[in-house]
Amino acid sequence: MELTKFTHSCVRLDDGDRTLVLDPGSFSELDEALDGADAVFVTHEHIDHLEPDRLRTALSADSRLRLYAPAPVAEMFGEFGEQVETVETGQSYEVAGFPVRTFGGQHAVIHPTIPVIANVAAFVADTVYHPGDSLIVPPVDVPVLLAPMHAPWSKTSEVIDFVVGVRAPKVTGIHDALLIPPGLAMVEGHVGRLGGEHGSEFVHLSPRETLTV
User: Fold this and answer.
1) Which of 17, 36, 43, 118 has the most CB atoms less than 10 A away?
2) What's the DSSP call for residue 35?
3) CA 158 to chain CA mean position, Å
């Protein structure tokens, strides 16, 4: 399976026969990410993980395209009927032929005065874990972790603890568009060094780069 990273939190998974896109947000190269996709999985409603107009265009253009998302997102696309399926935490789904298990349930806290929203993390094909905007450690072995590098709701020590807690053999960064290159290199350096002490190899992917998983 090929994993392609796009800017920020969007990733595309291809196994030769089917394609799944996760979190196609406003910072990402959406025309490329969504081209020929069979399904889209959205962890939550924030614009950097979901660009509604562009996804609506894609769903309109291809009646075979399916959207899987938590209720607040699914309700935004109600006009597409059977093309949209609501997902909940603690469940298993078949998404464009990929088995997906869900974890988490809520977005990480940004500030006590900002309401917490739904966030459903996705574990795809028992291989790739995308936590969305959360640092939820799933109770399963994770071969490939997509680790949020920087956000208004996190600090570097928490990201490191998340990577150490998951203990995935391979880690690559997502949620990194808010950092300039020197800042990203610093965070990735800490995550790679301290995660490596616990058996996690960090692999940097720039936008459009691909990793075989």
Assistant:
1) 43
2) T
3) 18
